[in-house]
Each structure stands twice: as C-alpha cells, then as structure tokens.
Amino acid sequence: MLRILGERRCNHKTICSWRDHHLKWDPELYCNISEIRMKESELWIPDIVISNSVSDFLRASDSLIPLQVTHTGAVKWNSPATRHISCQIKVKYFPYDRQECELDLVSWTYTSDKIRLKLRSDRGLDLSTNMESNEWTVLNTSSHVFIRKYEMNAASHYHIRYKLLIERKPLYYLFYLFLPSSIIMVLSLMIFLLPTDSGEKATLSIMVLLSLFILMVTVSEKLPANSKALPLLSTYFVANMITIAISMVLSVAIINIHFHPAHLGSKQPKLTSRVKNLAFNKLAPYLGMDVSSVKDEHDQLEKVFEQKLKKNESLLIDEVAQSSSEADAFDVILEKLAIVENCSLYVVGYFNTHFRKEQKHRQWVACAKIIDRLLLLIFSVVFVVTSAMILAFKFYNDSDYY
Description:
The chain is α+β, with helices and mostly antiparallel strands. It has helices spanning about 170-190, 200-220, 230-260, 275-285, 295-320, 325-390, and strands at about 1-5, 10-20, 35-40, 50, 65-70, 75-85, 100-105, 135-150, 155-170.
C-alpha cells in the first residue's frame, strides 16, 4: 500500500508473510490460543531492504508494531514506513510530465538458494487505501519478480520490483507560473499601442522585461533542477524573455524612424518610392490604417494652388465688374495678374521651405505607425500560438512522454 507525499517520498505499508516451523504449537496444550503477537527482536525476520532508497539504508519496514504468529507457524509482518526512493525525474514536459518510479525490494544477505521471494498478487501495488495526492495522479502500477546475479561475489538474489506510473497535476503551475507570465506578455504588446510621441515606449519595454526577470527568480525554486533537458515551462519563459527583448530593440528602432528627419534640418531624407509603395499602398490597407493625407505630396500641392487661384479668380471678377471703362478694367486685370504671380511665387516658396519639410516628417511618422501596427499583429500571433501550444501540450502524445 502506497501514498505519494512528494517527488521521491512515499508512505508505504509492507505486508510480508512466511512460515517458520520453529513456531508451531498445539492450541489444545495452550488454552486454545491459536494466535499471538511477538516483537521483531523475539523472532527471525527476513532482511528485506529497499535497494533504491536514498534515505538511511534500513529494512523495508522497521516499526515497533508486533508481528502476528499463528499456531501453524505462519508469520505475518504488517508494518508501515516512510521512505525516500530514487526516481529518475524527466522534466522535458514539465508541468505535464509523467514519471515512472520503481520500488525495489531485495534480501540483502540471503541469496536465492536461501530465501525465495514471491508476490501475493500480480496486480502491482495495492492502492485501495491510497490517499489522493494534491500534486500527482497514479495512472498505473505493476510488479514482477526476478533474480539478479552480482558479479562482485557471484551471488544471485531475488528481487521484487514495483513500478509506479504517476502524472503531475498542472493546475498549480499554470495558475502561479504560466498565468503571470502571460499577463506580462500582454503588457509587452501595449508597447506597440503606446504613442511614440509620449516618449515612454523604451521605459515600458524595460519595465516589462524586468518584471519577467523578477518572476523567473521568484519561481525558479519551484521548477525541477535538471541539466539534461529544459522544462517546457522554462522554455516558455525564455521565449517570452527573448520576445520582450526583441520588442524593446524594435521599439527603439521605431522611435528613431518616428523622429528620423526632425534633427536633420534642410538635409531631411525622403522616403524612397519602394518604401512608400510598400508601406502606404500595400501594408496600410491590410492593417486598416488611413494614410491618404501623406500618400503623395503633389496632391497636397495641387490643393494649395487650387485654393489660391479660386480666391484670386473671384476677386478679379468682382474688380472687373466694378470698373467704369475698358481701360480701367485692363489696368485692374494687369494689377491682379501681378498679384496672382506674387501669390504663385509665395506658394512655391512656401512649398519649398515648409510644406516639403512637413510632408516628409508626416510620411516618416506614418511609416513608424504602420511598423508599430504590423509588429503588434506579429507579436500577438506569436503570443497566442505559444500560449496555445503550452495549454494544448497535455494532449500531445510522444514516446518520451511516457
């Protein structure tokens, strides 16, 4: 009978029985007493030990509970004990891992020709009185008897080996480890929604990354220590750290793109036609962004010219209509044409000095916003896929999983 207390600790009750011909008696000669209780020190008991125990190397049972002896010489040894046993922990799929632990019983000094070990039942461990563990679920048990020969002394011993297949309950680790990490990842996505003009993109990135580091330090003691394989949950943490670090680097790049032409004065660079075609004509419509105001600077220039010309045209018509003679009307026309020429020169000068500079800046800002929206979409997909893989991994079937 077994009760799991931890990863390598268990409560078990060993039930052994044998027949000792030296303990027979006739009940009629002893007041019809057919059964008695005796201490371990008062009779012979087999030196059965747990060979894979990692605690003190003691017998499989060493309590002070007396043994039952019947008049036929049958001895029953029923004794509970708590043992730490060695169990090869596989952490590759933690917290969805399944462990196969063994309980190996052997007579330490009696060879196979002196003592023979047999199983009471082939059903494995008796779990009828097992108390359900908060961390593990017992899936299956098995048992078998075999003889092992030791080359050191050329002796062979009987072994009884019990195998126990257990599965970890992942709810605790998903709630206290996976959920906080997922919340931090959601906060990292807010980096791409934060306006670049706020100047807090880099600050938020660093704060999120530090939060994940603090979480990893806090939960590192709860993760099983193993250098053969990286636990699944640890892989998820590392992936999140790398993702947040990449998002921080990209945020710095987006800030540089947003303010790229601002400090160059008259030497402000211009977006190439390929970049504008890719950003404004292909990416922006798919991302649901309206960039019509910064698409083409020539359209904006035509609007400015059209507004100026319409205004001057209406003024010229009114002046001509109020003229008293054709000579006066001709003088008005010449005067207004000079005004139109001055306005045109003003518009051209304004365009060369202010409009082009503002239009270039708007295009760089729009390009930075498009990249922000694109990275938000990409990182959201990565987060959803990785989180879904962690949650769905319980249903994954692999030979190493068992």
